[in-house]
Amino acid sequence: MATNENLPPNVIKQLAKELKNLDETPPEGIKVVVNDDDFSTIYADIEGPAGTPYENGIFRMKLLLSHDFPHSPPKGYFMTKIFHPNIATNGEICVNTLKKDWNPSLGLRHVLLVVRCLLIEPFPESALNEQAGKMLLENYEEYARLARLYTGVHALKPKPKSKTGAISESTTALNVDQTKAVPSSKVPLPAASAPLAGSTASKAPGTNSQDQNAVAVLPTEAAVGGRRRRERQRQYRRRQQRWFPPLQKVR
After folding, report:
1. What is the pLDDT of residue 250?
2. Per-domain residue ranges for the chain?
3. Closest Cα partner for 47 from 55, 38, 39?
4. In this structure, are residues 43 and 61 in contact, taking their beta carbons and an 8 Å threshold?
5. What is the pLDDT of residues 6-55, one digit of tens each?
6. Which of the four CATH numbers 3.10.110.10, 1.10.10.10, 3.40.50.2300, 3.30.530.20 does domain 9-155 have?
7. Kind and range of the H or E element at 43?
8. CA pair distance 123, 94, nearest whole angstrom
9. H-helix segments, 9-52
10. Is there a contact between 56 and 22 (Cβ–Cβ < 8 Å)?
11. Which residue, 57, 18, 56, is CA-closest to 39?
């Protein structure tokens, strides 16, 4: 396996250019992971194509570049377990592009796209996983079931973290704080206002305790005026009796 130190400078320059292009405009369903200190190992995450048993899966793979790359093809391996005719149990990838059909002019983008196409259209005739190849030809339903099972166990996309837990914790903390508060039955009530001096308010039938603490109502203007009129009438009658004594009856 090569490293940046023993790869030819022109190869390093070409790889750096390709990797930058892959990072800026990634192929559909492929994300390349780069180690700037070692271009000899290229990692990529491949999304399972829709409509295949690998749908909703993320598969990590790697390409190993030899010291005479690009004159010799890279070796490809799946690091994520997968049930596929052209991928061995140790992860080795069998595809003509990485073997007899290799051409030094082929770039990394082309290699990655060919590998993803294998998930769409396997080639059971050149199977590394004989069980998967035979099952694909004879019983596709069973092959698809096992492939989906592998995907669900080993390659399922991680679900985004929910904030429900944080909300629940906050709610719990709020409930705890509320339980620590003074119960309403124990909260001291303000003292009742003292009655006005001279008031003779008494509890009327049907009134509650709050009515007893009510401030005495001052007399209205109408009530005051009525007392004044009655007082003037009494004074007028006294003057009449004094000025016009009653006549005595004639016997």
Report:
1. 46
2. 9-155
3. 55
4. yes
5. 688 888 999 999 999 999 999 999 999 988 788 899 999 999 999 999 99
6. 3.10.110.10
7. strand 41-47
8. 9
9. 9-24
10. no
11. 18
Percent of the chain with pLDDT over 90: 51
Distances (CA, A) of 50 to 56, 117, 146: 8, 12, 17
110 token code pair: 């082309």
Asked whether 87 and 136 are in contact (CB, 8 A), the reply is: no
Whether 175 contacts 106, CB under 8 Å: no
- Where residue 91 falls (left for φ over 0; alpha for ψ -120 to 50; beta otherwise) is left
Please tell me the least confidently modeled range out of 11-15, 87-91, 153-157, 164-168: 164-168
Cα distances from 46 to residues 25, 79, 197, in angstroms, run 15, 11, 91
Catalytic residues: 94
Q: Which residues contact 193 (CB under 8 A, 6 or more apart)?
A: 213, 215
What pLDDT shows up at residue 229? 67
What is the signed CA dihedral for 96, 98, 102, 107, rounded to 10 degrees?
Answer: 130
Q: What is the pLDDT of residues 109-122, one digit of tens each?
A: 999 999 999 999 99
